[in-house]
Design a protein that fits this description.
Blueprint (H helix, E strand, L loop, with lengths): L1 H11 L5 H16 L7 H14 L4 H14 L2 H21 L7 H82 L5 H30 L2 H6 L8 H10 L4 E7 L7 H21 L5 E7 L4 E9 L15 H11 L3 E7 L2 E9 L3
């Protein structure tokens, strides 16, 4: 429409003959080239600048070309295309000067027009890139949030699984020991059977209480978890006494100095190491003696060494295991900054842990 108006204006101003035919041809060519700006903005814009040098009928399309380049290309490219457009109009003004306005003012208006087109396009491009970057950042933030939620869920599930194993496996292995005694000693005196049945009943109640604590762990936050008392290194003798009451032969040699000075987290880890060692001994070497050695003092490392001989006849374990206890325990010790090793040598199973003990 603007190109047609420009041609009509040239005709109304008295342009005729070959000049008018040139204006009509240039106007038609610019109308045909304008849609191609969407696919090849730089090349088409330069072609329109060449047409603008021949006739004012292409001025509008050339200006729109500069705007398209500024919107879709970097600013140096857009500025270069704008400079070519101004140079093309300088050629046009020298070849076919406009009547009623001086060349200087006309060139100033052309320069201001191209500058406005380039600036407008660059501003639109910058705004579009800003919006796209904000959308991309929002997508990344959403993806990162989803990843963090998934990792938090996995860590929580791992923590809960470890807690359930550490708390319940020990208790249930004790119950299995007592139940095995009832099964294989039916000729025991009634008072012994009654005592064993009472111990099993009490153990079941304790297991239920500990299971309830684990369920509470699922329903409370970290603050609630810290409010509940957690086992520490000083609770190891009680743990050994429970194993002895169940008929286990456990020898405890405690050579630690100032055990109460051990940080709570490290003490809880040490307690779980001993607990897992005694549980494994009951499962895989029932009736065999277990030797537990604790060594360490502030400023060194707490060393836990648990050994028990394995059955020579390859008897099946008293209670089946999943094989994940030592894996979870290794991770727990590693998180405490320590190291856990386990090996079987000369018919003996050894569990060895080393945990830092700050001064």
């Amino acid at each position: 429409m603007l190109t047609a108006m420009a041609v009509w204006g040239r005709f109304s101003s008295g342009v005729a003959g070959a000049a008018l035919i040139l204006d009509i041809a240039v106007g038609a060519a610019s109308c045909l080239l304008a849609p191609l700006l969407l696919w090849r903005p730089v090349a088409v814009s330069l072609a329109l600048d060449v047409l603008a040098a021949l006739s004012p009928a292409a001025t509008t399309a050339a200006s729109m070309g500069a705007l398209q380049v500024a919107q879709r290309r970097r600013f140096p490219v857009a500025a270069g295309v704008g400079a070519v457009g101004i140079a093309a109009h300088v050629v046009q003004g020298l070849w076919r000067p406009s009547s009623g306005i001086s060349f200087g003012w006309w060139l100033l208006l052309v320069s201001l027009g191209y500058g406005a087109m380039v600036g407008w396009g660059a501003l639109a491009r910058a705004r579009r890139e800003l919006l796209e970057s904000l959308r991309e950042r929002a997508r990344r933030a959403e993806a990162e949030q989803g990843r963090r939620v998934a990792e938090a869920r996995m860590l929580e599930r791992t923590r809960i699984a470890r807690e359930m194993h550490d708390v319940l496996a020990h208790r249930l292995s004790l119950l299995a020991t007592y139940a095995g005694a009832l099964e294989y000693r039916p000729d025991a005196p009634p008072e012994k059977l009654s005592q064993a049945a009472g111990v099993v009943r009490a153990g079941v109640h304790q297991a239920l209480d500990e299971l309830r604590e684990v369920i509470l762990l699922l329903r409370t936050d970290d603050a609630g978890e810290e409010d509940r008392p957690q086992p520490v290194l000083d609770d190891v003798p009680r743990l050994v006494a429970e194993s002895r009451d169940a008929g286990g032969q456990v020898e405890l040699r405690d050579e630690t100095v100032e055990a109460s000075a051990l940080p709570a987290a490290a003490g809880r880890t040490a307690y779980r190491v001993v607990q897992e060692g005694l549980t494994n001994a009951r499962k895989h070497a029932a009736g065999r003696p277990v030797r537990v050695v604790l060594e360490g003092r502030p400023g060194t490392r707490l060393v836990i060494d648990i050994r028990n001989p394995l059955p020579a006849d390859g008897a099946a374990p008293l209670a089946p295991g999943s094989g994940t206890g030592l894996v979870g325990l290794t991770e727990r010790v590693r998180l405490a900054g320590g190291r856990l090793d386990h090996q079987v040598t000369a018919g003996e199973f050894r569990l060895h842990a080393s945990i830092p003990w700050p001064a």
